[in-house]
Each structure stands twice: as C-alpha cells, then as structure tokens.
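Instructor's aside before we start: the two examples that follow are unrelated to each other. I chose them only because their records fit on one page, so don't look for a connection. First example below.
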Amino acid sequence: MLDAKAQANDHLRTHDWYRSATRWTQLTLAEDDPVKYDLAQWIDIFKRTRSNATCISAGGYVAYYPSKVPLHHVSKFIGDSDPFGDLVTGARQLGMHVMARVDPHAIHQDAADAHPEWIAVDKEGNKRRHWAFPDVWVTCAYSDYNFKFMPEIVRELTANYDIDAIFANRWQGHGVCYCQSCKTNFRTATGHELPMDESLENPAWLAWTGWRRSLLSRLVVEWDAVMKSVKPHTSFIPNMGSVSLTEFDLDIIEKYCPFLCVDDQGRKGVEPVWMSGRNGKRMRATFRDRPAILITSIGPEEEYRWKDSVTTGPEIQAWIDDGTTQGLLPWFTKFNGVVPDTRWIQPVADSFGMHADLEPLLSTMTPTAEIAILDPATTLRHHGQDTRRVAEADDLGFYMALVEARLPFEMVSDQAMAPAMLDRFKVIILANSTCLSDEQVQALEAYVARGGSIVAAHESSTRTEANKPRNAIALGDLLGVTMAKAARGPVKNTYVAINGSHPISDGFEGANRIIGGTRLLAVDAAADTSQPFLYVPDFPDLPMEEVYPREDPKGAAVVTREHASGGRTVYIPWNIGGILWEVMAADHSRLIANSVRWALNKRPDIEITGLAALDLAVRENHAGLAVVLNNLSNPMMMKGPIREIYPVGRQAVSIAIPTGKTLGKAELLVAGREAEITLADGRVTVVVPSITTLEVIHLTWA
C-alpha cells in the first residue's frame, strides 16, 4: 500500500512521467546487500546529486524483494526484509520517479534443472556456463525464459510496487544461440541453418541479424503489454548500446519506448571524451525529439571489469558533461550498495548540479546545425560486436575532424532521411555509407536537387541495403564519378598530390603531396568536375633506395562538383576517415574540414578563435540561441582516466545573428554574468574569458 506522501505525488504517475525524470541514480545491488547496504546513505545520495529518478535492482537473476514466482531466485540474505521496496518508498517520499531493474541473462542451478531449454548453447553444442561465474548458466534470450518466465516477474513487480517502468539489462542475448529451439525456429523463419560465423558474406548471418531484430522487438512489445495491463502509465524500457537503434525495428521503438537509455558507461582503451556526446547525436539522428539518457559508471570501463571500483572524479565529470553538452540526460550507476570509497559522490553531484542549473533553459531549446554526418545504420546492422567498431572507423575519423575544426554538427540516420529531416542541414556527410538502398540513394539525389550539399568518401553506396555488392557507385551520377576499379588494399606508402589551386587544398602550403589512404577506389571523373587532389601511383616502401615515385600523379583522389541547384558535392574515393581515426594525421583532418567548408559554400554560423579543444553544441528557440562549449583540453583527452581538469583561456566566439532577429542580451550562464560582445556585419562576437568544464553562451533576441 502507498503511504500518504507517495499518494500526494500521484500527479507524477502519468503517461508522460518520464519528461520530468532528467537525472538518474542507478543502484545495482549485490546479493549480500540486504544485510550490508545503508538505506539512509542512499537517500542522502539521491538528495546530494539532485536526482529526480532512480533505477533500482529488483529481480531476474536475483530478486531483492520477496518474490513468489517459482524458480525466481530470491537473495539468500534477504530474510524478512524487502530492500527493493524500502528504496522505492524512500525515493517516492522525495518525489522521485522509480524504475525497477531486471537482469535476465543468467539462471541458477534449480531453474536450469527444471528448464534446461532455457540455457544458451554454444556452436559446439555445449550448454553455456557463465563466463565469469561458472556456478550458473547463461540464458537463451530467444527462449521461453524471456517470453514466458520473465513476464511473470514483470507482472509481479508492476502489481506490487510503486514503479513507473522496468529496465532490463543484458536482455538481448550474447551472440548466436545454438539450442534446439533456436535451430528449429530460425530454420522455419528463414530457411537457413544457424550461422557459424559473423561473415558479412554469409547469407545465414545476415538472416540471423534480421531474425534476432524481429524477436527482440517482439519482446519489447510483450513485456510492455504485461506492464500496461497492470498499470497503464508504465513502460518497459530496454537497455541499449550506442548502436542499438540498428538492432530493433524502429516503428516498435517509436511506439513503445518513450525515452532511450544508452548504456555506454565510460571510456575503454584509446577513446576520446567526445564519444560520450556522440551517443546523443546518434539517438537524435533517428528520434529527434525523444529524450535520451547516458549511463555513466563511477568505475573504469576496461575489459578487466573492476566493477566495484571508483575512477577519478574528473573522468566521471568529463563523461557526464560531454553527454550534457550534446543533450543526453545524466544517469550514474553504482555497482554494490555498499560504499567503501566515497570519492565519486561529489564529482557526480557537481555535474548533476550543473545539469540541473542549465536544464530550465536548454530543455526548452532544439539542437541545430548546418552540417550532419549520416549515421550508416543500414551498413552497421549487418555487423556483429567483433566487426562493428572497425566498420565505424570512417565515421569516427570524420567526427574527430569536425570536432578539431570546431564546426558544430549533428547526425542524421539513413533510416530517417525524410526531406524534412535532411533539409535541416546544408551539408550531409557520408563517411563510408557502404550499404544504401535505391530509395536512400534517390533521397540523397533529391536533397542535392533542392540545394543541399554532400561530402562522400570511400565505398559509400557501393553495396545494396542487403549488403550485396554493386558493380558501380550508386551515387556516381550525382558525384560525377564512375568506378574504374573496386577498392583495393590495404596498401602502404600511398600519397595524394595537390592538383592546382582550389579551396580544398588551402593550408597545405609548402607541400605538393600528402599521405594517402590504405584502401583506394579508382574512379573516372566527369568533365564538369574538378580534381583538387590526384593519386600518386604506387611505389615501393623498401629497400629505401627504391622509395621514389615512378609516374606523375594521375587518377582523381578528390572530386568536386557544383550543381545547378546551388548544392555542391565532394567525393574522396579512399578511406580518409578510417585512416585518420587510426593514424591521426593532421593533413587528413584538414582535408576533411576543407571539404566540408567548401561544400557549405558560406561562412559557418559559428566560428571560434582561441587555443582549446572544444566539443560544441548549438540550440535555439523562438526567444534565443545557446552555444554550449565543453572544454576537452587535457593530456588524457584520448585515453582516460583524466587526472585533473585543465581550464582554458580566452575564446572569441563569432555567431551569425539570424535574419530578422536583433540581439537583446548576451550572457555566460556558467560564469553567471553578462558577456563582453562586439557587433559587426550581422554577427556578434562573444568573449569567453575562460572555461573550466562547461560554458554556455546564451543570446536572447530583442
């Protein structure tokens, strides 16, 4: 039964409750927490972090409430207590929203004995013991365990506790399962046997990705229906990775997921800080107006999985703050209810507090940009975990080049290329959108016919949406190229030579050639194009005495075209994005930035001078415009954890004033004062004296 204070907050239990759930605390309990955790400490953490929502471990692998569902393992430490219920009550008394966390990826021995068909099977036919805790078994995500057993738990939690949603972690399965049920169901649905590898040339693998997508989408629908049959305002919220929108049917997500959770908890290996905010752009690329949350771990996110640990405070803040910059709502997760190391609490409170202070303004504004990278969902959906990051290398390289150039940009999914979506931008970038359907190609052609510009690279549009090779570049008629030879490589010691004077070759003074790529397409260019760079024909890299070119440059390495509509296109027929991401050559970053600026065909709306590495976001509403400046400048920018924050000095930000608008006021929101400005030529230049972590320029129109 709800207490009186919880009943007073019944206005929160509406279908749009999630719109006021903007800062999340997640507590993932360990089995012995019922006798060890401190409830009062967690209520205090809710308050200190200004959290208005919480996600609390409830059930699945272990139940933290007295579950009555047969074979649902209740914590052996629970006794007569109800830790989940106590945390729910405490949160509701603070007026918070509550989501119950379930984890269905493993079962204990009693459940395995009763239902061996629930256990996942590897390709050798062995039932899968858990890789980290062999006493238990990995479940088959496509079995009755998820489709019949877990709905009983979902129903019990929704009926007995004052929750708004159920959040599932590790619910999508762990690769291909070879149990008899999966074999039979897959064969019946597709006519294929289960794939034994993730080869993109294997039709069974491509069929499996589609079959899995269909089943998981159905699971979202069924769990959500169970909840709504008990409490109509509730929802099932699936946990997602940064590319999860490629794994589900978009119409299912649009109908059943009122907000999106991105489980990208921190940096792993060599990874820049801006990878955090990139998740926000990716989610907006498909669902522009849907709230998206970034889950941040307080521990390091390395392969060695120190899950019950604490990374540095500045690293936690950097990840949260870049998410805030790009519109992601903050969520932190603590594994284990016991808090032996409290160093994380204040940094989280500081970043959550900054979000709380900026939210009243930024939540009323819409992200805007002149430039967008096309998120190649049609390509990435064919990849598994082992190949996906390699497939994303070109996109990551272009992303890094635009950050370095301090050009504000968004992303748009190739699954959402309606004219209204594309026409928000003046330039669309295809870093390596290998797989495109004929309809997608036609949408891009129509975009340029309406005056838009495109920068495309590498093997964009050389395969169909089903990942079948084409014999031509489908966008070739638009770009002014025909494919002479398919991509070859990897090759070494390649170069591209500057060919005459062109804005794309600006800034390379003193050089007549720069390093090239490692995978090269040969193309013939149409007569109405220009070729600012040409390939230098291959020559040996050893012996050293043989390292010299034998032939003059020939063959287009960059192709530009101006269209009657006013749009422009640039095509770079080699892996400039992927090799930039790997080698980080400054010339490649400059070449990408020059190509985008030339395609833009105007002075950018936002220009910044000053020494700093910044991640930028621009937002606007009818009353004004905001430019968010996130300071990335740090010796640990590319590899965490950040030890301390390095403030940067003076930045001059030149902003175009929209036609018909007159500047009323310019403020620095984090500094809390009016800004020093100058007005000239329809632009305002705002001086930002320094930035510690974040600064927001807010312009209001008169």
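Example two begins here.
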Amino acid sequence: MEFASNFLHEIIDEDIKNGMTERIHTRFPPEPNGYLHIGSAKAIYINWSIATKYNGLFNLRFDDTNPVREDDEYVQSILQDVEWLTGTKPTGGVFYGSDYFEKCYECAVHLIREGKAYVCDLSADEMREYRGTLTEPGKNSPYRDRSVEENLRLFEEMRNDKYPDGSKTLRAKIDMSSPNMNMRDPAIYRIVHATHHRIGNKWCIYPLYDFAHPIQDAMEHITHSMCSIEFENHRPLYEWVVDNCAPCLPSHPKQREFARLNVTHTVMSKRYLRELVETGKVDGWDDPRMPTLCGLRRRGYTPSSILEFVTRAGVAKTDSLVDIKLLEYCIRDELNNTALRRMAVTEPIKMVITNYPEDKEETFTVTNNPKDEAAGTREVPFTRELWIEKSDFALIPPPKFQRLKPDGEVRLVGAYIVKCNEVIQDEDGNVVELHCTADLESGNGKPIDGRKVRGTIHWVSAKHAIDAELNLYDNLFTLENTAAVPEGKTYLDFLNPESRKVLTGCKLEPSIADVPAGTRMQFVRMGYYIQDSKPTEDGTLRFNRIVSLKDSFKPDKK
C-alpha cells in the first residue's frame, strides 16, 4: 500500500538519516472513555501508516490513567475499531497505561529525590490562582520548598490511602514564571478514589497524562509520538519528563504534532457524543448518523473509504474544516465500482400488465454490476403485477420528463417496453394503480422497429417481492461548523430533525434475500444500501442507505 507523503515523513526521513533510530515505532493511545470517531481515524492512520511505510511497529496503548470515566466496554470497541480500520492487529502489541503505574511511581520518586518534584496541598482553585496568566507570571506554592524527606514521606502516604481526593497533588518543580503555562509546576499525580476497570482498587493515586504519556512511550521504545496539534505547547513538558526521568527509562522518544480532523455538520468531542447517547438524542454509539467508527461501519462505510477520506483531507499542521461530502464522495466512488446492483421500490405503486397472462411467469437476466464482468448476472422474476416507483410516474408530467406518463412508454430494466393505458386513482385523487400493456417482442432489452424509448425504470414482481423498511440518513447537525455555535446557543440547538427518515412498505427483488449480511448494494437508481446489523422487532428486513447515488460535490485532485 502506498501512502501520500507528508511533513511527518520528512521529519522521520531526517531522523533516520541522522542515525536517531534504525526501526520506527509508533503508537495510538486512546482513552477508553468513549467510542472512536472519524477524527480518531486520522490519528490511527498516521501512526499505523508510518509504521507500515517504514517497516516498523505500531502499538495500541490504552490511556487508562483516569478510572472515573473508563470502562471495558470502550476497550473492546476500540480493539474492534482499530483492527477493522487497519485490517490487522497492532504489529507492536496491545498495551495499557496501567501496565506502567509502578514505573510512573518510580519516576515520580526519582524526581522527588532529585529535588524536581514536591507534594502540594493547594486546592485546585488555589493552584489556578497561583498559576498566573498569559501576561503575568505565576507564584510559588507555599509548599514548594518542602524537604526531599518530607516529600517522599507524603507521597508514600498518598499512595497508602492516607488522604482524601483533592487534598494533595505531586507537582513537577520547573518554573512558575515560564511563558509556557504547562511548565508552571504542573501536577503530575493526583488522588482519585475510584475503581479502575482493569486493576480494581490497587491504586488511589494516578499519574496525569502529561507525565504518564512520555514514560509509557519510553517504556515501549516508541521513536515518534505523533500527537494532535493541541499538544504542541505540551511538548516542552514531554521532553522535560523524558530528560529528567532518563535514568529510569530505556529509550528517548520524540513528540511531533499534526492538525486534528474537523468535519462539517458533526461533532468530534467525546463529551458531546456521550451526551447525545445518554440523553437519547441518538440510538446509541453505533447510530448510523454518528461520526463514530462503529456508527459508520453500521451505516455501511468501508475501512478503505475512510482511509481514502483521511488521505484526501491531508496531514498538515494547520487546522481546517473538511466537508463531510468528501467522505460521502469516497464511499460513493468505491461502491460505484464494487457494489452489487439490485432493484428496490421505495415508494411503490402497482403496475398491472394487462396483456400478460395472470398465470405466466418468466425470468430476465440482469447484470450484477456493469462495471465488473466478474460479478456475473442473476435471474429476476417477471409477473403480470409489478411494483414501480411512485416518482417514476407523473399524471401531469413536467417538461423533459422521461419516465412514465399517460399514453407514454418506458422500458422496464432488463425487461419489456410498456405503455401506460389507464390510471386508477383513489377518492382523493392519488394514483394507486397503473394499467399498462407490454410490447412482448421487446424482452431482454431488445430494440423494436427503431423506436426510441428514452426512459428506463426499475421494477419488482409483486408476487415475489420482499417487504422491507429503509433508513435514509442526512447530516446530524444543520450547522456546518459546530465549533462556531452562535452566542446564546448550544450545539444541541442545531440537531437536524430530518437526520433520519424511515420508509416502510418498500418492495425488494427476491434475490436480495440470498445476499450475505454485510453486502453493500446499489439499489438501482436509488442509492447505496446495506442491511442493518440490528434486526427489527417483527423480523422485517431493514436497510440503511449508505449514501445517495449522485452528488454535485467535486473533490480537489489528490
């Protein structure tokens, strides 16, 4: 697999040239407090593709240093998503931040012994007050000059459950006047009494991310720690931890940053996604309207289309907002070449072929994919009574209407040319049935007497049709940029009430019943669909529309 070059590759090429490392080793470090989303796909892609490109190793490491929100449910979902997206298990292995709690504690004790860390009794509010501002330096904690012996004792007592939550922290002793706020004696350990999803109540103190992450990277011999751009100002702290804990660590990793993936008409914050789930605004983390990888998978997106989207969106250091239509373009472009074709009538009206015998049945041979000869053909049953699409008939046709109208002709896909002779309407004037005659010499698409029949419509035998319901999806939010919510509003004010539309009473050709679950199909002229992975209560087949058949969106060239 080829990977488009980007600035991170240039950094690695230079590092290899300078002899920094012989083998590239990357990692993806998700926190197991929610499901992965399309933004996570970019981070996975960057780390996995770099390891693949340079014949290196790629680790999955769970950042489980905050037990309050973490759960094994999220662990299992992340394992599934990463393997689904990359097509393989992490080549370097699967690890947990909690694997390194003893090492983090050892490093913290080392810093205390070196006079580079101290136990502080300031509350969270007091720490913020002492921290200063972007224009004013902070001031030293009154506990900053505790002796090494006292700090060692207090830190051990913190570990031994002597103090309540929030009463003490361990802070790195760096520089309270640093222009970088992250270097103003940051907290590196806090007291948290909560049951950890893996290790139970073994620990009541937990390292903070900025302290634990570089230690974990070093323990796994990570060469390049690729982070999103918000961690750029944290890099000096990352390097400070690695440098000052060097005697305890086996390697010296390097952090570099890239811009996050922001997509129109959706949200990427796990806090917001969790709120949507917990308040019932969506039908779970795997709701096909969600930007989660499990939601995209259930909707029918493929790993290759998501990776293509990430590639086209680009890897840079500058934040940008990527049009969600690019994601739709990528799956549409793929499915146009690979999806099976099947006929489905979404809003049916009955067509009766009056000159076709009631007891006669025949089949017509129809191609499975005109772009793929290897896909072969199938036999579709034809009977006197058919279902056609409501929108394929117009009692009073608009200009240039090329489908069926009174006294007009169309060809049925792969079958006969038919002419509409009579329109049956109900008492409200709604068209409920069409009586037509077929040119029985025109079967299998044969041309007749040089006549030009411009319209071709799809159809399903009424006798053999399968009943189904279809889910049609639209953007979850009406606001293009959900990071720019107008004052006085919240992102929830822009939930799209039309984001899901359910069509019931749909009629599908019978061969769809034989298509394996998970197969992506083009319902001819209607869009691309996949059978929903969650069954309906009454057993009715349900299909999710992956994407519409066409769109005017034109992507930039690669």
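The chain has a mean pLDDT of 95.
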